[in-house]
Amino acid sequence: MATIGGTATTTLDKAPSDLRLTPETYTTVDNLVKTTKDFVLPDLVQSYGDQGITGFLNLVGAVKAGGTSDQVDWWEAGRRHKTYAYADGTISSETVVLDDAAICGASATDAEGLHVNDVVMDSVTGVRLIVKTRTAGTSVVLVRLDGEISSGTAEVNTSGGGTLIHIGNLYGQGTNQPSHFQDADVIKYRNPFMIVKDRYQVNGSQATNIGWVNLGGGEYRWFMYGEQEARKRFEDRREMMMLFGEIRDGASDGTSDAIAATAKLGGTNTEAAGSQGYVSAVEERGIVVSNANANPMDSFAEFDDLILQLDKQGAPSEYAMYLNRKQDLAVDDMLASGIATSVTAGLPGQFGAFNNDADMAVKLGFKSFTRGGYTFHKHDWKLLNDPTLMGASNYLQGAMIPLTNVTDARSGMKAPALAMYYKEANGYSRELDHWVTGGGVMGHSNNGDTGADVATFHYRSEIALCTRAANQHVIIKGTA
Question: Which among 177, 193, 229, 430 counts the fewest CB atoms within 10 Å?
C-alpha cells in the first residue's frame, strides 16, 4: 500500500508503463543455475616427470639391516705386502742411508718398518738392496745385494724420493730367528648413525576442502598431495645424506673445537656428529677420476687407465655405472665407435649380475659392455641430471659400484659392498618413523591442551651407510 497525494492506492492501480520493468532485471535460467558444468581437467600434470631420486641404493644391491648402537663398526683386511716411500737419501761408503721414520721404525721393538736382513727393490731402478743396520727412529743403512755401489750411481733417488718394494729377507747359516714379526694388517672403521627429520602440517579447514584435482584413487583433498610430496622429499633427502654426508670435525659455531665424544657415542650431547656418506668414503679411500666437465670420459684409453687402477685394488669383474647424461652419452658414442671395430665384443657372462639375462638388464635400464675382463653395466642417474640437485653442479659426473660381496675380515661372512643400517630393537624400527599429531583434526587428538587446529605429520629416520672396500669404488668428478 502506498500513499500518493494523500490518497491511498495500490500498485495495481498504476499503469503498466509506470512499473518500469526493464529487461535488465531479468536473466536466463542457464545463467541463474549454471546448468553447464565447468570443464576442469582432473589430472595433476607432472611437468618435470617423476622427480623421485631414491632407488640408487636398492638397484646396486645395498642391503638394509637393523643396528643397536650409536655407530656401525666393521673391519677390512689391509695389504698383505708393503711398500715404503722415502723422501730422500744419501749414498756414501758403498751404502744407502734413508732416514724416514716410516722406514726405520719408531723404536727398537717396533715391528713396523724395515729390519736388518730385509731385502727391498727400488720401484724405479729395480736395484735390490739389503738392510745392513737399523737405528730405530733415525735411519736404515742398505747395501746392494751384488755389492756394486758407488757414489753418484742411481740405486735410489737421493733427491726426489721414491718407493721401496719389500720383497723378502736373507739370512746366513747358523743365524737366529728374527725377533720381530708383522701382524695382520686389519683396519677398523666406524660410522655413526645420523638422524634425519622433517614434517608437514595442515589445518582443519584445509583438511576438509575438496578440490578439482584427482590426486589418485579418487582422492580430491588437496592437502593429501602436499603430504605425499613431503614424504617423498624426506626420502630423497635421506638418500642424499647417505650419499653426501660427512663426519663433522668441528663445532657448529665454526670454531675449531672438536665435537664431544658423546655426540658420536651417545650420551647427552645434542651436537650432531654427522655420518660419512658414499661420496665422502670414496673420496677418502677409493678411486677418484677427475675430468673437465666439457670433456667427460669418452675414450677406451681413459677406461684402460681406470682398469689398471681396478687391477691394483683387486676389484671384482662387474660394475654398475651411474652417470649423468653428458657422461652417459659420451660412453654411448665411445661404444658405437668400438662396436664398429669389434673392440667391445660381448662375453657369455656379460650379464652375470642379472642372472646372465640380457633382457633383465635392459628392463632395469642398464646397457652393458666388456673391456679388459671387466663388465660395466651403465645406467643414467637422475640425481645428477636434476637442475635443482646435482644437475646444478659440475662436482659429480658419476659413480661406479662393484657388484660383489665383500668378506668381513673379522667374521669371514660375506656382505654387499654397500649396506644401509637403521636403528632397531624389540620390534621398534627407526628406518622410517612416521606419526601424526593433531588438535582433534581428522581424529588426531594428541596435541595436549594446546588446542591447535592442525594435524602435523612427522617423519624421522636414523640411519648409516657403510661403504665396505671403498678402495674398489670409483667416482667421476667434474672440474671447472
Answer: 177
In the chain, CATH 2.40.30 covers 83-184
CB atoms within 10 A of CB 398: 26
208-232, pLDDT tens digit by residue?
888 877 777 788 788 888 888 899 8
pTM, to two decimals: 0.74
State the Cα–Cα distance between residues 469 and 77, nearest whole angstrom. 9
d(CA 214, CA 42): 5
CA distance 128 to 130: 7
| CB of 402 closer than 8 Å to CB of 296 | no
Cell of 164: 721401496
Q: Give the separation between CA 371 and CA 237, rounded to whole angstroms.
A: 35
Strands 418-425 and 63-67, by their bridges, are: parallel
Q: Find where cell 529487461 sits.
A: 23
Q: Report d(CA 436, CA 125) in Å as an integer.
A: 70
What residue type is assigned to position 344 of the chain?
Answer: T
- The answer to whether the CB of 87 falls within 8 A of the CB of 133 is no
- The enclosing H or E element of 331 equals helix 325-340
Q: Which three cell numbers stand for residue 154?
A: 742411481
d(CA 327, CA 302): 13
The pLDDT of residue 290 is 86
pLDDT in tens, 32-46: 666 666 766 566 666
Question: How would you label 401-417 residue by residue, b for 16+ Cβ within 10 Å and e otherwise?
Answer: bbbbbbeebeeeeebbb
The identity of residue 50, as a single letter, is D
- Mean pLDDT, residues 471-476: 92
Burial class (CB in 10 A: 0-12, 13-18, 19+), 2: exposed
Q: How far apart are CA 383 and CA 243, in angstroms?
A: 11
Structural contact between residues 437 and 447, judged by C-beta atoms closer than 8 angstroms: yes
Measure the CA–CA gap between 191 and 470, rounded to whole angstroms.
Answer: 13
Measured CA to CA, the distance from residue 415 to residue 418 in angstroms comes to 8
